[in-house]
Specification:
Its cofactor is pyridoxal 5'-phosphate. Pfam families: PALP. Keywords: Membrane, Pyridoxal phosphate, Transmembrane, Transmembrane helix. This is PLP-dependent cysteine synthase family protein. This protein is an alpha/beta fold and 320 residues long. The relative contact order is 0.16.
């Protein structure tokens, strides 16, 4: 994570935690050449977030949220960290929780890939696995129920409402994007393509990039309801939970992407040496749809995690 993002790491952090936090961020901004095929002159860039210590973009907000909680002493009485996650944030929580020596309990939908579940368990996290048919929001509600039932045992991080989530992207991820584009001789992007899990990436990066370019176009990926795309919330059905920290006023366009389209793009990205998960494929698929309009010249998105996290799902099999 960038130094500005953490504004100095507390000296009392254990060595392992301090090293991990210091390794987060400053990920490469890679150019994806597919955009020029759909609209000449359009350039598409993506942050390669699999190079964070736990392998995903979620290291950024989780580190900020946990370090701030550690500073506040919320774990001093032995309470566990509690939150819901589709997997990537859960892995980051489990990794940093192990390094900090705190207990971690994650409520996770049962359709999370086996690799995600096994890695969280490897760090010693306790998992509460919910019925995948119940959907993304059921796990979120279950975490709230546990927190209310046992407040002495749990500190509920609540990444869907914790402002340190979006702030990590405002002062870290977005600043890196602007700096890396400037180093290429390019201005601030005119388009941002993101998704909504907690809303942190979209809100933090969107707010900062809007300051650099008030006319920026922000497009949001909307997955199908089931089987969905790990890490992304579907919207549109009655009762769907809208994350408390999501700044929906930033959104200019919503683009539906199916799991098949996301996987197909992941396979195409692999031919460039970019081995990424389905949410990354969905983002690039949507970015190319935006590029095809011909209205924009510099598009930025995110490659959220590594494709190794999804081998057990069959998405890389020759017969799928």
């Amino acid at each position: 994570m960038s130094n500005s993002a953490m504004q100095g790491e507390p000296a009392e952090l254990p060595d392992a935690a301090r090293a991990l936090v210091g390794a987060i961020g400053q990920t490469p901004l890679v150019e994806i050449p597919f955009a020029a095929e759909v609209a000449p002159g359009v350039r598409l860039f993506a942050k390669l977030e699999s190079l964070n210590p736990s392998g995903s973009i979620k290291d950024r907000p989780v580190a900020r949220m946990l370090v701030e909680a550690w500073r506040a002493g919320v774990f001093a009485d032995g309470r566990h960290l509690l939150d819901s996650s589709s997997g990537n944030a859960g892995i980051a929580y489990a990794m940093l929780g192990a390094a900090l020596g705190i207990g971690v309990t994650i409520v996770v939908p049962g359709n999370a890939s086996r690799e995600r579940l096994e890695r969280m368990r490897a760090y010693g996290a306790e998992l509460v696995v919910t019925d995948p048919i119940e959907g993304y929001d059921f796990a979120l509600r279950e975490a709230h129920t546990l927190a209310e039932r046992e407040p002495e045992r749990y500190w509920h991080c609540d990444q869907y409402a914790n402002a340190d989530n979006w702030r990590s992207h405002f002062v870290g991820t977005a600043e890196e994007i602007l700096t890396q584009l400037h180093e290429r001789g390019l201005p601030a992007p005119d388009t941002l393509v993101a998704g909504i899990g907690t809303g942190g990436t979209l809100t933090g990066c969107g707010r900062r990039l809007c300051l650099a370019n008030p006319n920026i176009h922000i497009a949001v990926v909307i997955p199908e309801t089931f089987p969905g795309i790990e890490g992304l919330k579907p919207f549109g059905a009655p009762g769907d939970i809208v994350p408390a920290l999501l700044d929906a006023t930033l959104i200019n366009e919503r683009i539906g992407v199916s799991s098949e389209q996301a996987v197909a793009m992941c396979r195409r990205l692999a031919t460039l040496g970019l081995f990424v998960g389905p949410s990354s494929g969905a983002f690039v698929h949507a970015a190319l749809r935006v590029a095809a309009s011909g209205h924009y010249r510099c598009i930025v998105t995110f490659l959220n995690d590594t494709g190794e996290r999804y081998v057990s799902t069959g998405m890389w099999g020759a017969d799928t």
